[in-house]
Amino acid sequence: TDAILEVDGCLFPADIILREGLAYTKNFPVREDDVFIVTYPKSGTTWMQEILSLIMNDVDISKVESVPNRNRAPWLELATAPVYLDGRESPRLATTHVYATFAPTQIMQGKGKVVYVYRNPKDTLISFYHFHNMAKFLSTPESFESFVSDFMNEKLSFGSWFEHIKTWMDVRDKAKLMFIAYEDLHKDLAGSVTHIATFLGKKLDAEKLKVLVDHCSFSSMKNNNMVNYSEVPRTYFDRGQKFMRKGTVGDWKTMFTVAMNEEFDAFVREKMKGYELDDGWTSDTK
Ligand code: A3P
Predict the structure, then answer these.
(1) pTM (2 decimals)?
(2) What was the ipTM of the complex prediction?
(3) Most buried of 92, 142, 182, 232, CB within 10 angstroms?
(4) Which residues belong to the active site?
């Protein structure tokens, strides 16, 4: 089904997110060396799960090749989170799609570290649109136009792209937080990984960096059953679609008309006033 849970004005897919999961998330006892991946859906979550799993395991491939990403970097808000997080040895890696206002309060007291990945909202929208046609816990869009309108009107599951990033930007002085764009990973994966490793107090030598970069390429991840969701039960995903879809920058150009694009860009500029991002895409609107 595609039932909705609404909490404090934010919508969640009720088949996979329960109030208990949100309470667990909020009250999560954070350890100093916990690392959290925070994203609005379809912004590069899986990519960052693989990158961080490797950085935190000293690029030991044997640590990631037999465990699915969702067990190595479990979502805090999912019902299975306690199984994979409570009592797990440090350093732990966890993932969440929630606004900062739903996140573990101890993160805002400076505990743990957060890597926030964001992506051009138009590409995020396109990827989320296709994902809605694949995931059974999300409603199938009536049309692309209606989906764009739902995105702009903050009517999608996991809430609003705008609210999401703004709530996290609002806590950047309280939380130990770094922002990185999907587009940066694309442009320079090795450089981005080095930057992330430094944030975590790690250093990778050239050989390890190369192993990581090769392992995390789109083609390699597309064929990796531990991250491509190919073994997830049919109850969740329609088998006809691929989770590792295109992995490109600028795919919005295949679906936005010139008029839609102009309207959307103006809307983003208005919404993000006072929250300007250091990104590679707000200027790339043509
Ligand atoms: P597309 O639908 O545009 O292909 P998330 O993991 O947050 O759900 O995001 C999924 C998006 O990230 C998908 O985008 C997917 O293809 C892309 N992605 C996953 N791994 C990637 C990689 N190694 N390189 C580039 N893009 C990747």
Answers:
(1) 0.96
(2) 0.99
(3) 182
(4) 97
